[in-house]
User: Fold this.
Amino acid sequence: MCGIFGFSFEDRELLKKMESILIHRGPDAKGNFTDESMSLGHCRLKIIDLSNRAKQPMSNEDESIWLVYNGEIYNFKALREKLEQKKHEFKSETDSEVIIHGYEEWGINVLKRLRGIFAFALYDSDKKTLFLARDRIGVKPLYYSIQHGEIVFASEIKAILQHMKPELNEQALDQFFTFQYTIAPQTLFKKIWKLKPGHYMKYCIKTKKSETKKYWDLKSQIKYLTEKYFITKIEEKIKESVKIRLISDVPIGIYLSGGLDSSYIAAVAKELKQDIKAYTVSFSEDDESEFASDVASYLDIDHKIIPCKLQSLELLPKVTWHLDKPSVNIAALPLYAMAQESKKYLTVALMGDGGDETFAGYEKYRLIMLRQKLNAVPDLFTTSIASILPLKKEVKNRLKIFLSKDYVKVYLSYISSFTDEERQNLLKIRVTDQDIALKPYFNQNPVQSAFLFDIKTLLPDDYLMKVDKTTMANAVEARVPYLDHQLVELALSIPPEYKLKRLKTKAFFRKVIKRKLPDKIVERKKHGFNVPTQQWLSSGLKEIALQLIDVAPSIISKNYAFEIINRFKQNPRYYSRQFWSIITFIIWYKMYFEMDAPDFNINSYVS
Assistant:
């Protein structure tokens, strides 16, 4: 895992500035390459082949091709063997070198042969061409900006901002206050874009033109085979996925929460690597360590509980800086703290992310299936239900939308932070109907459509960026076995009614894991990282929030924002996402648009 950056001109000072911004991603080594057409930089976190032979930027034998790369190619040994048979000579034992020789042999179609997580830039100096590429699921980030015919790219937006002034993307802001993230290629910064998962960009230095192409897409093809068949296939594929992710030349472990996903990863990893170690960070505010200890004891895994006092809001500015966006997904705080503490013991961590999206772990999937079952109920009856239930007005309004037969609106009614009307009240811009972002996905089984949308947007544009940037901020590589693209393809072929049998979340997956784990874990309800918002409110959070709104940028309606903060205590379940969206946006805006340098003292944002 590393930080990569570069641009299509020569500027050694800019290379140094970008390197200084990304050094946390790769503190073990740094390097750069420059000619009259291209400048490339790399900050290395050593994982495979710790020698200097694996340093980057890396070239082929005649130095006509140069690579900077972030990620892991898990099938690199098999690819290397094929390439050596074709007389390619390797100078290192690292996985990155197969991309260079693979490009020489197969051109950019090498992408279709790579199995892993990656973002890379490959410069072909003979053809004066730069290729940017991102892995299929979007585990690794890659951003770029093209202005006046010149391209600048980096693993994180803040590095690109060493070259240009930030401008707020109002269209993306509207999207952010709906989904809590922006959908690729949009970012919250004007003229800065995210490369989509499963895509590559070709930039021609001579013509200064670029084109982006898709090299892989996740198709939704449900196969009505037996549950027994799928259980066997899923077991096999998860085992294979974990096995190839255990390759490492540095200490590797498991982030064990005691939930279904990480517990099953631990069970499989223990079978494959007897000396595997598991780590759980114990937070005083919200502790899952008891469940993790039960799993570790059952599996006989060497388990370390790392005490960590989560410093409440004190981490918020620092995490915001690393995320490049408002940290409204407040679980980023404990994840950052976990990576920070666990770095003392490991460099690579297996994680259970992706299990909920592939195997139906969220309540929203269950509710969408329930809505499907209500299709047989007359509309008049469902409308009456929404009218007579003793609910608060805002909840009742959402319920009415949820009970409609438009599944795009059904999904949005559950996941959106703000409705169209609420966003119009909050933002001093013209808001648009966000249905358009979902419609391409919702053209089949509505639950399957929700899986597809979440895997293609929620994961790569939000959850996986939270994982990548909070772990890499602490020089820890996160590996996510459930998001091996072959496993995801298989999981998407399982009928939704298997995954949510009798409306139970992860019904199918529980059948898979019960062969290796005790009932206490198998039947456990989803927990996740919870941040003690109510506790923080009583210790000064509301006062900080009110002060933040007082200094909010003019694009925010302060009166409406104050209303939301005041309503939050009366109905925290409804207003939690709105609360955090507003205050984290203000911190992010002040940090990136009003400060000369990031300030990690929360009090600096309210003065």
